[in-house]
Specification:
Layout: E1 5-10, E2 31-32, E3 36-37, H1 40-48, E4 53-58, H2 63-72, E5 82-87, H3 101-108, E6 119-124, E7 127-129, H4 133-143, E8 147-155, E9 163-167, E10 173-178, H5 183-188, H6 193-199, E11 207-218, H7 219-225, H8 233-241, E12 247-252, E13 256-258, H9 262-271, E14 299-301, E15 304-310, E16 315-317, E17 320-326, E18 331-332, E19 337-343, H10 352-361, E20 367-368, E21 373-379, E22 384-385, E23 390-391, E24 401-402, E25 405-408, E26 411-414, E27 419-420, E28 425-426
Parallel strand pairs: 1-4, 1-6, 4-5, 8-12, 14-16, 15-17, 16-18, 17-19, 19-21, 20-22, 21-23, 21-26, 22-27, 23-28
Antiparallel strand pairs: 2-3, 6-11, 7-13, 8-11, 9-10, 9-11, 24-25, 25-26
Length: 429
């Protein structure tokens, strides 16, 4: 029988590090790059690798995610492909939420149709990278591994933010430490010069191997592992399997970014505006798929743009944009200046009647008003920013809230459907 590969994308957490972007939507549904969603990245990687049996595990604020998946991923009936969303549910075995990544898979094993020799490819839902998963699958088979953990090279100074592994010359993992703290512990995980020379050209002295949260499991091994205590793969299950199963590492040398925080999320989006971005959406051989929209081309009236990405259906009038990502249906009005801003756009346009109602109720129109200055900010979908507004997070403390504006990771966020009245000033330094 042909060995099958089932892809499981983890999207069940609350996404607290991405709050308030996850206030009303699941983490995988957060908009990315002007027209995509975070979940489009792992799904596209699966499809480009030839794997079309995909399960998405989630449990919080799933409505917009359901709509996006249903609108985006429609398969030919002869392909047998699918993207299924599996939310936490009450069963005879239990009625509790997912307690972690391993527990989410544990609760859904009865939904997966598999044989013991099949493989499970377990993926994170909040990372930006492009990977041919056939390579890690072949690496897994070649080594005769029970489990393979994809890892990436990081300088030891960043080791305390990741799950770090130590491998032998045969790529068998000897140690797995979740977010090591002490200098002695980190130094013990630094790759040796001998091993570094065999890993690849990106390896340098003083590097460690960090887990990417991408795992390949032999189905029978996964089933047995999930019968043991432990709710999270990285913290409990995988470290507990070392020495009991053959756990190997696959070293990935391409661009990879965990965009689980507000700060890393904004920087990953703004990176896309670089002349030669580390992650390239313009790769015709490895498309990133998303919901097709029937929107008009963007309309630019007398504006100046530097390193700016525009989604479909935008209207920008006499404005200046520097290093910005502009989402679908965004409207930016006369005299405004935006720098280092991701504006996610809107789900709809306002007609004449809606604009008249807004004017009567003294509510700003959708988008950015006239003569605004905004820097280092995320403007979520459906936000309304009035005229003569000045916004910049400099010198405001993390956790600072002001109406529908908040400061997180040193970045300013206008929440989804937020309203910023005319003349609002949040500007220091």
């Amino acid at each position: 029988m042909k060995q099958k590969v089932a892809c499981v994308i983890m999207g069940g957490g609350r996404g607290t590090r991405l709050y308030p972007l996850t206030k009303t939507r699941a983490k995988p549904a957060v908009p990315l790059g002007g027209k995509y969603r975070l979940v489009d990245i792992p799904i596209s990687n699966c499809l480009n690798s030839g794997y079309n049996k995909i399960y998405l595990l989630t449990q919080f604020n799933t409505a917009s995610l359901h709509r996006h998946i249903q609108d985006s991923y429609k398969f030919d009936p002869f392909s047998a492909g699918f993207v299924d969303i599996l939310s936490a549910e009450q069963t005879e075995l239990g009625d509790y939420w997912y307690q972690g990544t391993a527990d989410a898979v544990r609760q859904n094993m009865h939904h997966f149709h598999y044989k013991n020799d099949d493989l499970f490819l377990i993926l994170s839902g909040d990372q930006l990278y492009r990977m041919d998963f056939r390579e890690i699958i072949e690496h897994h088979k070649r080594l005769g591994a029970d489990i393979t953990i994809s890892s990436t090279l990081i300088p030891k100074e960043r080791a305390s933010h990741f799950g770090v592994i130590r491998v032998g010359d045969d790529f068998v993992i000897k140690e797995f430490v979740e977010k090591p703290k002490s200098n002695e512990e980190i130094e013990s995980l630094v790759i040796s010069g001998h091993l570094c020379s065999s890993i690849g050209h990106l390896c340098r002295p003083g590097h460690c191997l960090a887990s990417m949260g991408i795992y390949v499991f032999k189905a029978s091994v996964l089933k047995e592992a999930l019968q043991l205590p432990g709710s999270d793969f990285g913290k409990e299950v995988l470290p507990g399997l070392l020495g009991k199963a053959k756990v190997c590492s696959y070293v990935f040398e391409g661009y990879w970014e965990d965009i689980g925080t507000i700060g890393s999320f904004l920087e990953a989006n703004l990176m896309l505006t670089d002349l030669v971005p580390a992650f390239n959406f313009f790769d015709a051989d490895n498309l990133i798929y998303t919901h097709p929209r029937f929107l008009p081309s963007s309309k630019i009236n007398g504006s100046r743009m530097v390193q700016t990405i525009l989604g479909d259906g935008c209207i920008v009038t006499d404005a200046v944009l520097e290093r910005c990502v502009v989402g679908v249906r965004s409207v930016i009005r006369e005299g405004s200046y935006l720098k280092n801003v991701y504006i996610m756009g809107s789900e709809e346009y306002e007609g004449v009647k809606e604009e008249e109602k807004c004017n009567l109720e003294q509510i700003p129109l959708l988008g950015v008003g006239k003569n605004c200055v905004i820097e280092n900010a995320i403007i979520d979908k459906g936000a309304r920013i009035g005229n003569k507004v000045k916004l910049r997070p400099n010198d405001y403390p993390n956790g600072y809230d002001y109406g529908d504006i908040c400061i997180r990771d040193g970045k300013l966020v206008v929440i989804r459907n937020g309203i910023v009245p005319d003349g609002t000033v949040l500007w220091r330094g």
